[in-house]
Amino acid sequence: MKEFGYLLLAVGFVAGCSSPQATVSVQPKAGSPLSKSELDLWNSAAFKKKFQRSYIAETDIEPRVTTVERDELMAVQNLIGADKMDEAAKLLDKSRGEAASATCDFMLGNIYFQQERYEEALPAYETAVEKYPKFRRAWRNLGLIYVRNGDYEKALPALTKVIELGGGDSLTYGLLGFAYSSVENSMAAESAYRQAVLLDPATMDWKMGLARSLFKQQRYPEAVALCNSLIDSDPDRADLWLLQANAYVGLKQPLKAAENYEMVDQLGKSTVDSLNMLGDIYVNEDLYEMAANAYIRAMDLNPDRNAERPIRACKVLVTRGALEETKTLIQHIKDLHDAHLGQVDQKDLLKLQARIAVAEGQADEEVRVLEEIVELDPLDGEALILLGQHASRVNDPDKAVFYYERAESLEKYEADAKIRHAQLLVSQSKYTEALPLLRRAQEIKPRDDIQKYLDQIERVAKAR
User: Fold this and answer.
1) Domain ranges in the chain?
2) What is the largest CA-CA distance in the chain?
3) pLDDT tens-digit profile of 177-209?
4) Residue 103 three-state SS
5) Is 320 in contact with 352 (CB distance < 8 Å)?
6) pTM of the model
7) 8 Å CB contact between 259 and 249
8) Which of 21, 26, 38, 419 is the most buried (most CB within 10 A)?
9) What gap in Å lies between CA 250 and CA 379, rounded to an integer?
């Protein structure tokens, strides 16, 4: 289903009589649970024609009306033809009651439906089907409103009732498929969509719904094949390329999925998520330059989005050893977000830069970055331990101890800092001083390898 637009409803007449028609232009209300692309069906000529026919009685499944009620309904229809909808509604409202025909309630519901007063139309239709349970037109319009309001659990029995009463047209089956899909009953959705396609093979929405139901059932080969057919007939629909891409991912054919994502980008329909997915595929295929390019395109598509996702991409790239690509991505993040980065994001970027510096053997750059982290957050235990390790490597034990002791004062990092401190003391043959640090580390965070190390240092200390 696609965009609502302006809903134009041509009003017909009841019981086969003829009268003037009224055309009502209604602006859709905000807050619909349906997406913009899912509402277009409501503005189609086919839908308007079907709704117009809902004013025409079907004698085998219609409540009877008295002569008095027929006169009143003709008066109502004259008001509708004169575009006096509110007056028509007031006249019907006066006629309603337990003894009144369900047709009066139905007509009132139709007027409210045209005016998009759905919450008032619902009880009118509900009263109509309570009075006359075989009232197919009322069940149909009730189902339409439930779907329009996103109340799919209630839409299902209403639409099913329409079919039970012989009203199984393509629209009813299609909406039934949509409702089943929305409540995650993909198998039932598939059956309903197949019926809709059988009755109306020209409508793309039913075929798209069928493809989605196949995908949700993880029947990826069938979803891919159906998408191929649909893409051949409408190659500019990005949602078809995206759905097929997701099916390719399910089939573990990531490079075919990547081709689809690139096609979506050529159509100008990429999203931040689709480009990030493309980047992830390229990373897994060791195509790091192409991955960085995809991540950058994702950032450029929505510069106002926070930097969390691209920073996560940087972390993945640096662990794969893609240092140049990581640096390129970090620089782009800074260019777009530097003025708005929070402390956590700033620290993450600095730590990434430190890892790159270590990997490239740039000790001075590593220290500079780590000191910047500590300046930004004096309680960053990870940076303090790394600075201690660096000081130890350059043979500055006093500075190393200074950093380790600062990290030891932080509960989260105490165990790791004490182990590093003890290792420094062991390298200086200060075994006795190292033992209490190792024992405390084991109390906080017991580890088998550290216990073996502790036992070894105890034996050495005793031997001395």
Assistant:
1) 397-464
2) 117
3) 999 999 999 999 999 999 999 999 999 999 999
4) helix
5) no
6) 0.69
7) no
8) 419
9) 44
Distances (CA, A) of 137 to 63, 128, 305, 379: 11, 10, 47, 69
- Distance, in Å, from the CA atom of 54 to the CA atom of 218, rounded to the nearest integer, reads 39
Joined together, the tokens standing for residue 34 give 């349906």
Whether residue 79 contacts residue 67, with contact meaning beta carbons closer than 8 Å, is answered with no
What would the two tokens of residue 246 be? 């997701």
Rounded to 5 degrees, what are φ and ψ at 301?
Answer: -65, -30
CATH fold, domain 397-464, is 1.25.40
What is residue 285's three-state secondary structure? Answer: coil
Question: pLDDT tens digits, residue range 384-440?
Answer: 988 888 888 888 999 999 999 999 999 989 999 999 999 999 999 999 999 999 999
How long, in residues, is the chain? Answer: 464
SS3 177: helix
Distance CA 97, CA 391 (A): 90
Q: Are 353 and 316 in contact (CB under 8 A)?
A: no
The residue written with tokens 């009203």 in the block is 167
At 125, the amino acid letter reads Y
146 phi and psi, to 5 degrees? -60, -40
Question: What angle (nearest 5°) sits at the alpha carbon of residue 14, between those of residues 65 and 125?
Answer: 75
Report how far residue 454's alpha carbon sits from residue 443's, in angstroms, rounded to the nearest whole number. Answer: 12
CA torsion 107-111-116-122 (nearest 10°) is -30
